[in-house]
Amino acid sequence: MRAKLAMACRELDADAALLSEIRAGRENVRWGAGEAGYVGISMLLSDTVCGRLLDGRIGNIVSDATLEESLNQLAGVTDGTVRAYIGVPFETEDARAYVLCCLAREARPDLGEADVRFLQGVAESLRPLLETS
């Protein structure tokens, strides 16, 4: 799991790659690579960037979160932890919901649809690991 997240971090030149489980209105960070300190965090989904992705307020890519009205008041954005974001939601066969995302502390105008497809591929490669856990 961690090796695949580390690969996503490297390929997308991100500071962190996170895999979060979405359950009971919360985002629960289960696995991570890159910057430490995210694994184990549980937040109300309404207070997260991933929550904005899931409710349709943002797309898969946010090149500069400080310029995104629906994000610029979130704690991670205001403190400089999250400047750019790319994420993909997915579910396992047993209907557990997850979001795989990468975060960067710098604006990333270079992120594009090819990067989203790459991250979707990583998510697909993680699905079998999640279905056996």
TrEMBL record:
This is GAF domain-containing protein. The lineage of its organism: Bacteria, Bacillati, Actinomycetota, Thermoleophilia, Solirubrobacterales.
